Amino acid sequence: MDALDASSRSGLGTEELFLADSRLALAALNVGRKWALRRVFGVSREQANLLTLVLALSAAEAAHEATRRVIRAPLRVSGTDAAIGGFLVREAALGIAGPRNRDVPLFGTLMMVAAIAGLALPGLRRAVQGFRATEQRVREQRISRYIAARRAYGS
């Protein structure tokens, strides 16, 4: 029996089946969470939510502290490390592209330009759209001022 046939016979569409399945999975995970907390910490089912909150806050604090340390850590990259990193990035790009592309002159440069363009284009598109919206708004304001001046002069 096909899954689509079962969903049409039960009267549930794809969205309803997905929601029902996800709710069932979340309920199973919740039961498993409470069981694990009872086994590890010996807490009751009523205390499991509070303990989960305390554990989540502790994990968030630890993650915040680790992030703060990583951001403030001095970055010491030698020229040798940079050269090795560049070589590894080049070899990874050539490995993904295939063996025949090693014969293409400046293939690494072409891939780097494509990667930078792929990262920059969405930002440039947003900037152009914002510029167009601003230009349209200014144009409409200017036209409304011309119309108001024409009406004032005509009366």
* Percent of sequence in beta strands: under 5%
Run of helices and strands? HHHHH
Mean pLDDT, to the nearest integer, reads 84
Q: How many domains, in number, for the residues?
A: 3
Gyration radius from CA atoms, angstroms: 30 Å
Oligomeric state: single chain
- According to DSSP, the number of beta strands is 0
| Main sheet specs | none
Task: State the separation between the terminal residues, measured CA to CA.
Answer: 79 Å
SSE class: mainly alpha
Low-confidence stretches: none
Helix content: over 70%
Tell me the number of helical segments per DSSP (H or I, 4 or more residues long): 5
What would you call the shape? extended
Describe the structure in your own words.
The chain is an all-alpha fold and 155 residues long. It has three domains: 1-73, no CATH class; 77-101; 105-155. The protein is built from five helices and no strands. The mean pLDDT is 84.
Summarize the SSE layout with pairings.
Blueprint: H1 3-10, H2 14-41, H3 45-72, H4 79-97, H5 107-154
